[in-house]
């Protein structure tokens, strides 16, 4: 009985061993099949990536479509401001030639108006002698270039003039919202010319001046300008009640001026302000 049991156990172990060997062989074959499938799939992905890479290269080399230049204002960098005619008109030096630029959307007081000279000085302080960038908009009826001046700090001279109360937004020729908002702020905080309870717009001033000029009969003779007047410095009281200019800044008459004392050339005092020489303190 014991021998029969041992034979049965031996047979069972043999069957188990053969079964394990068969299972291991099957497992090895399945493993090899899976490995082959993985290799074939990776080979296919490499082919797809190569094709995809070619497509990307084609897209990358395609030309970039830009906006037409006609939709963008002309721009020139590096122009130097070599002259300031008044608050809203400057002279640029470009390629060795001078270019007169009228500031777009801006109208500063005339020189004979209150804040006219201050506006000119403000423009000079910000821009004279500096390299600026010009954004060209168009040309006016006098052939001047109309544009926006971008200062070295990136700010717009046009907007700075209006924001600080040295100019009106010239709405007859501009609907720029930034300039409109700048004027609204200057009015609200009573900056510059808005301190006056009833400032006169320069276009109204020019219109009234033309009307008076046309009404004069006979024509008023033009005051002669002395030789060297374009280079000689004189002083005048920026008051509508003053009719003279002074060659001596320490003149007692000038010291009684309650308004701003302006420093101009003698030619400007005569032609632009309509003044005559004061003989009280004259050294001539």
TrEMBL record:
SMART domains: SNc. Residues 75-196 form the TNase-like domain. Keywords: Endonuclease, Hydrolase, Nuclease. It holds the Pfam family SNase. InterPro entries: SNase_OB-fold_sf (IPR035437), Staphylococal_nuclease_OB-fold (IPR016071), Thermonucl_AS (IPR002071). It comes from the Bacteria. This is Thermonuclease family protein. SUPFAM superfamilies: Staphylococcal nuclease. CDD domains: SNc. Gene3D superfamilies: 2.40.50.90. PANTHER family: EBNA2 BINDING PROTEIN P100, SERINE_THREONINE-PROTEIN KINASE 31.
């Amino acid at each position: 009985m014991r021998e029969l049991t041992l034979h049965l156990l031996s047979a069972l172990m043999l069957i188990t061993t053969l079964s394990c060997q068969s299972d291991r062989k099957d497992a090895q074959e399945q493993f090899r099949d899976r490995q082959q499938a993985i290799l074939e799939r990776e080979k296919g992905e490499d082919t797809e990536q190569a094709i995809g890479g070619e497509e990307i290269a084609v897209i990358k080399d395609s030309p970039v479509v830009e906006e037409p230049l006609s939709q963008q204002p002309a721009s020139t960098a590096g122009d130097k401001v070599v002259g300031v005619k008044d608050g809203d008109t400057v002279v640029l030096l470009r390629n060795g030639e001078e270019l007169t630029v009228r500031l777009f959307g801006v109208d500063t007081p005339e020189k004979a108006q209150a804040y006219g000279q201050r506006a000119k000085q403000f423009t000079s302080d910000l821009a004279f002698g500096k390299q600026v960038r010009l954004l060209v908009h168009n040309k006016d009826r006098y052939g001047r270039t109309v544009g926006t001046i971008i200062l070295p700090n990136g700010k717009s001279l046009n907007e700075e003039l209006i924001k600080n109360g040295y100019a009106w937004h010239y709405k007859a020729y501009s609907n720029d919202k930034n300039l409109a908002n700048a004027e609204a702020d200057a009015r609200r905080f009573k900056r510059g010319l808005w301190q006056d309870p009833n400032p006169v717009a320069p276009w109204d001033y020019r219109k009234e001046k033309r009307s008076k000029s046309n009404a004069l009969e006979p024509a008023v003779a033009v005051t002669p300008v002395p030789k060297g007047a374009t280079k000689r410095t004189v002083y005048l009281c920026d008051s509508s009640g003053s009719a003279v200019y002074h060659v001596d800044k320490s003149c007692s008459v000038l010291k009684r001026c309650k308004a701003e004392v302006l420093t101009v050339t003698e030619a400007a005092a005569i032609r632009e302000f309509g003044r005559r020489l004061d003989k009280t303190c004259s050294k001539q």
